[in-house]
Amino acid sequence: MGLHERRQREKENIRTSILDAAFSLAKTEGWASLSMRKIADAIEYSAPVVYDHFENKEAILYEISLNGFHCLHIELLKAQRGHDNPEDQLKAIVDAYWKFAFKNKEYYQLMFGLGMQCSGKGMMKEEFSSFQDMLYDCTYKIIKKNGSNPDNACHMSHALFSAVHGLISIMMMRNDDIPSTMNKTTLDETVSAFIKSL
């Protein structure tokens, strides 16, 4: 391995260490307490080294949020591919989204700005909207199958996304006084009612 390749590999290793340390700190202390200095201390480098790889904390948060959206996208695809008809796909996709949110709370909070500023404003990428796109696709197919007006698919799927995200947000921000079973039951009933309404 040449000197250039070795330096590139070292640079990538430091970059990965920065992202891993930032995510680990967020899990233990919360996103609000994250700072470039804490990240530098965690990887045992000086703060200028962290700034060599990322312009600021926002750039680190954006990179982590991209990884979160990528992981979510993979889970949604698995859920979708496990079923043939759009009704079952829709239920599976919503269920996978719900499970991802609560299994990966730190990711979800960062991805959607729960209790903090949303990361990556104005820098959206394809995977940011994969859940909404899949909801639309299933909704459109169900509407077409039922002989209803397909022009309503966009509005209807957006309403479902808002309901699902709203339930998750309530659960995450007020989990001390809201039973988890209530919200999951509400979610399942909402999806069933939504499918019947199409």
Describe the structure.
The protein is an all-alpha fold and 198 residues long. It folds into two domains: 54 residues, Arc Repressor Mutant, subunit A, CATH 1.10.10.60; 137 residues, Tetracycline Repressor, domain 2 (Orthogonal Bundle). It contains nine helices and no strands. The longest helix is centred in the N-terminal third of the chain and has 27 residues. The N and C termini lie far apart (60 Å). GO terms for molecular function: DNA binding. This is DNA-binding transcriptional regulator, AcrR family. InterPro entries: Homeodomain-like_sf (IPR009057), HTH-type_Tx_Regulator (IPR050624), HTH_TetR (IPR001647), MT1864/Rv1816-like_C (IPR025996), Tet_transcr_reg_TetR-rel_C_sf (IPR036271).
Major β-sheet, in short? none
Secondary-structure element order, N to C: HHHHHHHHH
| Average of pLDDT | 89
Low-confidence stretches: none
Describe the global form.
elongated
Helix/strand structural class: mainly alpha
Amount of beta strand: under 5%
Question: How far is it from the N-terminal to the C-terminal residue, by CA?
Answer: 60 Å
Report Rg. 20 Å
Assign the CATH class of the largest domain. Answer: Mainly Alpha
Assign a percent range to the helix content. Answer: over 70%
Indicate the CATH architecture of the largest domain: Orthogonal Bundle
Looking at this structure, what is the CATH superfamily of the largest domain?
Tetracycline Repressor, domain 2
Number of domains: 2
Number of strands: 0
Helical segment count = 9
For this entry, what is the oligomeric state of its chains? single chain
